[in-house]
Each structure stands twice: as structure tokens, then as C-alpha cells.
């Protein structure tokens, strides 16, 4: 069942070591970080690629549902880990967190890759409807009936828990593309629909990376023997593709553009705070604290997981600004209420390329028509790191010590 549409699996999802649910509140994320930080040093570097199976992912943090929505920030997570282990022993974990930053910054500077993906996906869905053989293969793969033991177990885990270990995601996507011969766009959309941490940048670009569309001449090929080893003998897949078919045409990577400029919030102006699933700990930031927040509204999410996280963020915002009027889910009526309350701007967290940014485009037009500019707070973390996310990951990786040393608690 899709966690995107119904989220029915969210409450019962089994994640992490002894954790029974994904961290979808700030308190749960902070508790998860505290629990995991002691294991984020050398132990993480050594064991992080072992896939222990559903409910036993104790060598990784399972923090992604919280990081994706910024219930907790990248800065908070890496700071906690560095203070536990020092910078050297935390290297591997920190660099994984920066992979998230890299994908976000890379897509932000190539928005046409997102729109191109959506277009190709629509085309692939149409092709499915006209080809019953293809539809059968797609449905068997999506529902864990391909006949490949590891793949079917991961398809089931994805549907039942909304989570897959990173290494399993790599094997799953590789088998989907190169062994089952299915379009990567359909696989990416299927995963996106079920992951509790579904992220337009990390998901789409990881699938492209596996498919050989990110780095010239490089694709990721799953290997049966390695799968047996990394799953400690749980699986022994047969008949996997022995060759990754690289895209026939030379890969078309658009040149990076300047990130979309955001209208920044003004100080001393009565403001409506709009909460979206892109940034759900705005109340912790000094720049937001210094604004005059007189009303609070939220942009409803499109999964039950988003709903839980948004409700938590709303409760924290109400505590922070007890005198602000809570307007609820944002729409035309709330826009007029904000204007009646004499709000002069809408303040929200920056929405990087993806469905939420797409929804904000229409909302921005409506808001401006009512005389309320929609302004976005950009985290210093992104502003500083994204200029290094224009080429390969190594360019960013080299800058990690410098980025980590920059002072500031406003991230
Ligand atoms: C095909 C495919 C699809 C993916 N789809 C998503 C997605 O939709 N959303 C998402 O957040 N991640 C995605 N990832 C990246 C990665 O698999 C998850 O972030 C990670 O498995 C989350 O588990 P964790 O929190 O236990 O990670 P940990 O190993 O504990 O890492 C800590 C944090 O670092 C970040 N991180 C770790 N590895 C990566 C990575 N390879 N890329 C980007 N960020 C990383 C995550 O925010 C994660 O929470 C995808 C990877 C692949 C190969």
C-alpha cells in the first residue's frame, strides 16, 4: 500500500534497532539521534553496508524521514556525531549526510532534470497501458513477484515499512533496470510513492546514477555474490544481469544554472508563517525568531507521514508564538484571513525543486494578488554548500572540512 496516498503503513513501520516507527516528530528525531550517535563513528564506517533485514537496520541511523522534512537539521545531526567521535572517526557518516546536500544542490541547479523526469514518467505510464506484457512485468516487480529472492523481499519491505536500507536501494534499482529491463522512471516513481523519506532529489538522482545517467560511462550493476555477503546469506539471487547496458545516446546533463532566487523575509513586518514538509523546525532558527509572526498556516502534505510531521511542527510553532492566530490548512480563505489580520508577508522555509515547490508556484501568484509576497527562508547550510554541488560529489567532499568549520548556529 502506498504511504504517499494513504500512509497506512506508517504507524506500524518497523525501522532501526528496536524502533517501531520512523522519526516523524522533532522529539522522536532527537531521541533517535541520541540513540544512534554512539554508533555513528568507526562502527558505522565498517558496518553501514550490511543489510540486516526489516526491523534490524541497527548499523544505520534511520534518520532520513526526519532529515528529509528538516524536523532535525543536517547541522544538528553532524554536530552531535562529531562531538561524540571527533571529526576523523565521523568522516563516513558526515559524508553520507553531505550526499543528501549534494543531490539537493545538484537538482536545484538543474531543475530541467526534474521536469524532464516527470515528462518521461508520464510517457512510460502511457506505454504501460498499451503493452500488457510490460504491465505484467511492472506489476510483478512492484509487488515482489519477480522470482528473484532479494528483490522480492525488498519490494515487500518497501511496501510494508516505507524504508529500505541504502545498499538495498542500490541493488533494487539496479535489478529493476538491468535484470528486469524496466524503465528507471517507473522504478523511481514506485519507490517515491512508498518511501517514508521520499525525496525528489535523492530519489530521482540516485536512480539516474544507478542507470548510468549521472556519470559518463558509469552505471551500478548488482552482483549476486555480493548480495549474499552483504545480507549475511539471507539471499542467493540467480540470473542477475552480468552487464549494465549504458544509455545508447551520450548522456545529456544540462549545464548548471544559478539557484532560483528567493524573496527573503523582511524584519519588522507582520507575517504569516506557512509550514511545509520541506522545513519543519523553523522555530529553532534565530532569523525566524526575530520576525513578527502573527498567523500560522500549513500546506497539507500528500502522505500520512507528512501529516504527522506537520502536526508536530504546528504544535511547536503554537508554543513558540502563543499569540499568533492559527489558520489551519492554507487556501484562499486563509489568505483573506491573513490579510484581515494585517499580515504583510508570508514566510516559509525554502522549497527546493520538487512537488512542494511546484505547488508554491500557484500559491505565490494567489498570495501576491492579495498583496502578500511569499518569502522563503534559505538555510545557511544550503547557501554555503550548494555552490559546490555543480559537478561530481568529490568537489563537495573536498569542501566538507571548510563547510563544517564555518561558524554559526543559524543553519
Ligand atoms: C535508488 C535510491 C533511492 C533513494 N531515495 C531516497 C529518498 O527518496 N530519500 C532519501 O532521503 N534518501 C534516498 N536515498 C539515499 C539513501 O538510501 C537514504 O538516505 C538512506 O538509506 C536513509 O537511511 P538512513 O537514514 O538510515 O541513512 P544513514 O546511513 O544513517 O545516513 C544518515 C543520513 O545521510 C543521508 N544519506 C545517507 N546516504 C545517502 C545517499 N546515498 N544519498 C543521499 N543522502 C544520503 C540521509 O539523509 C540519511 O538519513 C536513495 C538511494 C538510492 C540508491
From TrEMBL:
<feature type="binding site">
    <location>
        <position position="44"/>
    </location>
    <ligand>
        <name>FAD</name>
    </ligand>
</feature>
<keyword id="KW-0285">Flavoprotein</keyword>
<dbReference type="GO" id="GO:0003904">
    <property type="term" value="F:deoxyribodipyrimidine photo-lyase activity"/>
</dbReference>
<dbReference type="Pfam" id="PF03441">
    <property type="entry name" value="FAD_binding_7"/>
</dbReference>
<protein>
    <submittedName>
        <fullName>Deoxyribodipyrimidine photolyase</fullName>
    </submittedName>
</protein>
<keyword id="KW-0456">Lyase</keyword>
<feature type="domain" description="Cryptochrome/DNA photolyase FAD-binding">
    <location>
        <begin position="93"/>
        <end position="225"/>
    </location>
</feature>
<dbReference type="GO" id="GO:0009416">
    <property type="term" value="P:response to light stimulus"/>
</dbReference>
<dbReference type="InterPro" id="IPR002081">
    <property type="entry name" value="Cryptochrome/DNA_photolyase_1"/>
</dbReference>
<dbReference type="GO" id="GO:0003677">
    <property type="term" value="F:DNA binding"/>
</dbReference>
<dbReference type="InterPro" id="IPR005101">
    <property type="entry name" value="Cryptochr/Photolyase_FAD-bd"/>
</dbReference>
<dbReference type="InterPro" id="IPR036134">
    <property type="entry name" value="Crypto/Photolyase_FAD-like_sf"/>
</dbReference>
<feature type="binding site">
    <location>
        <position position="93"/>
    </location>
    <ligand>
        <name>FAD</name>
    </ligand>
</feature>
<feature type="binding site">
    <location>
        <begin position="197"/>
        <end position="199"/>
    </location>
    <ligand>
        <name>FAD</name>
    </ligand>
</feature>
<feature type="region of interest" description="Disordered">
    <location>
        <begin position="1"/>
        <end position="21"/>
    </location>
</feature>
<dbReference type="GO" id="GO:0071949">
    <property type="term" value="F:FAD binding"/>
</dbReference>
<keyword id="KW-0274">FAD</keyword>
Amino acid at each position: 500500500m502506498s504511504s504517499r496516498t494513504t500512509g497506512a503503513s506508517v504507524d506500524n513501520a518497523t525501522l532501526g534497532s528496536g524502533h517501531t516507527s520512523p522519526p516523524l516528530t522533532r522529539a522522536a528525531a532527537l531521541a533517535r539521534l541520541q540513540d544512534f550517535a554512539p554508533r555513528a563513528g568507526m562502527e558505522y564506517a565498517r558496518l553501514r553496508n550490511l543489510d540486516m533485514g526489516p526491523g534490524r537496520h541497527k548499523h544505520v541511523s534511520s534518520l532520513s524521514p526526519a532529515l528529509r522534512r528538516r524536523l532535525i537539521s543536517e547541522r544538528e545531526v553532524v554536530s552531535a556525531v562529531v562531538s561524540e567521535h571527533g571529526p576523523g572517526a565521523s568522516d563516513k557518516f558526515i559524508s553520507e549526510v553531505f550526499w543528501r546536500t549534494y543531490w539537493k544542490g545538484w537538482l536545484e541547479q538543474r531543475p530541467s532534470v526534474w521536469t524532464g523526469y516527470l515528462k518521461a514518467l508520464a510517457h512510460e505510464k502511457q506505454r504501460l497501458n498499451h503493452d500488457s506484457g510490460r504491465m505484467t512485468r511492472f506489476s510483478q516487480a512492484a509487488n515482489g513477484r519477480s522470482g528473484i529472492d532479494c528483490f522480492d523481499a525488498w519490494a515487500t519491505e518497501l511496501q510494508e515499512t516505507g524504508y529500505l536500507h541504502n545498499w538495498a536501494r542500490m541493488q533494487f534499482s539496479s535489478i529493476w533496470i538491468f535484470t528486469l529491463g524496466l524503465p528507471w522512471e517507473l522504478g523511481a516513481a514506485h519507490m517515491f510513492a512508498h518511501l517514508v523519506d521520499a525525496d525528489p532529489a535523492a530519489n530521482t538522482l540516485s536512480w539516474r546514477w544507478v542507470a548510468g545517467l549521472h556519470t559518463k560511462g558509469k552505471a551500478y550493476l548488482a552482483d549476486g555474490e555480493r548480495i549474499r555477503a552483504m545480507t549475511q546469506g539471507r539471499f542467493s539471487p540467480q540470473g542477475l544481469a552480468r552487464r549494465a547496458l549504458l544509455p545508447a545516446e551520450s548522456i545529456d546533463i544540462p549545464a548548471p544554472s544559478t539557484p532560483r532566487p528567493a524573496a527573503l523575509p523582511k524584519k519588522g513586518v507582520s507575517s504569516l508563517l506557512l509550514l511545509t514538509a520541506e522545513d519543519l523546525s523553523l522555530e529553532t532558527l534565530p532569523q525566524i525568531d526575530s520576525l513578527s509572526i502573527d498567523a500560522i498556516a500549513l500546506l497539507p502534505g500528500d502522505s500520512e507521514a507528512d501529516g504527522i510531521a506537520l502536526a508536530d511542527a504546528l504544535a511547536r510553532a503554537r508554543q513558540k508564538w502563543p499569540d499568533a492566530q492559527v489558520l489551519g490548512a492554507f487556501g484562499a480563505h486563509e489568505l483573506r484571513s491573513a490579510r484581515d489580520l494585517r499580515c504583510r508577508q508570508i514566510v516559509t522555509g525554502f522549497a527546493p525543486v520538487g512537488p512542494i515547490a511546484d505547488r508554491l508556484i500557484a500559491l505565490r501568484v494567489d498570495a501576491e494578488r492579495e498583496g502578500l509576497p511569499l518569502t522563503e527562508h534559505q538555510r545557511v547550510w544550503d547557501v554555503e554548500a550548494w555552490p559546490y554541488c555543480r559537478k561530481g560529489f568529490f568537489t563537495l567532499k573536498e569542501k566538507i572540512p571548510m563547510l563544517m568549520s564555518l561558524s554559526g548556529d543559524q543553519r
